[in-house]
Amino acid sequence: MRGRRTADEGGGLMPVVRTNGISLGYEEYGAGEPVVMVTGTGAPGRVWRAHQVPALTAAGYRVITFDHRGFSPEGASGQPFTLDDMAADLAGLLTHVSPGPCRVVGFSLGSVVVQELLVARPELVRRAVLMATIGRADMLVRAMAAAEIDLCDSGVALPPRYAAYVQALQYLSAETLGDPDGLRGWLDVFELTATGSSAGMRGQLGLQVIEDRRAAYRNIQCPCLVVGFADDRVVRPRLAEEVAACIPGCRYTEISGCGHFGYLEKPGPVNSAIIDFLGEPDR
To answer: Considering its fold, how many domains does the chain have in total?
Structure first.
């Protein structure tokens, strides 16, 4: 059910839905059939505003973005939660914003959440795009998660310029790293966001460390598109391609010249892949 409205960080008011024992803040843009966007670890729903929301609304969709649990309106509760909890949160939002099966787009941890929803509540999803996703956590994913948890729990705040440099190496492609003008803008963004609170992210850290779920994903019947990013150092493309290989009828496409943040780094080809797939007739 629809609850109160809460202020977003832009100063506006966003509607709130009460679901699965928590309140989720969400925003809607445009008109038409709904597309729900599911962000990755620690990211608020507003990250989709720059590129995906304008492209999808121009294509005639009503776009719904939301903040995962741990962000406003309730903030970080300190209580642990699981991927199943996040999938149940998403299920509640989908039933609230769409009278029938809905198109869903996920990124990174958000894609894993969508995959778990496709196993638990397949009737809620009409088509799914899964960007930078995994069906199992390999050694590097586990090492990255453990390191991020240690850093978060240590209370150490990296100097913003150093944090920006590390994030650029981790999340961007060689093409962007070699472009001085483009890289400067990214470093400015990373430096600015490095000073933000990590409280909302802490509960999500480690949730991408999943056991091998490929056998369960073989039961997914929803039409799916997996998108890999060629220079992704966080989720190497072969891990995303593994997911596509185990979902019946799933397609895989790989976008060149972009790293883990491919949907922001190369929004043109990424948006085209999303819109083309979402617009296909149902089988």
So the answer is: 1
Active site residues: 108, 232, 260
201 within a domain of the structure (yes/no)? no
Check if the beta carbon of residue 12 is closer than 8 Å to that of residue 223: no
Q: Is residue 164 part of a domain?
A: no
> How far apart (Å, rounded) are the C-alpha atoms in residues 229 and 148?
22
Type and span of the H or E element at 34:
strand 33-38
* pLDDT single digits (tens) 106-118: 999 999 999 999 9
User: Do the domain assignments include residue 83?
Assistant: yes
How many angstroms separate the CA atoms of 59 and 32, rounded?
A: 9
Locate all alpha helices (DSSP H) within the chain, ordered by sequence. 52-58, 83-97, 109-120, 139-154, 160-171, 174-177, 180-193, 199-202, 214-217, 237-246, 262-265, 267-278
pLDDT digits (tens, 9 = 90+) for 178-207: 999 999 999 999 999 886 555 567 888 889
In a domain? residue 165: no
Domain range for 96 is 2-137+210-278
CATH code, domain with 107: 3.40.50.1820
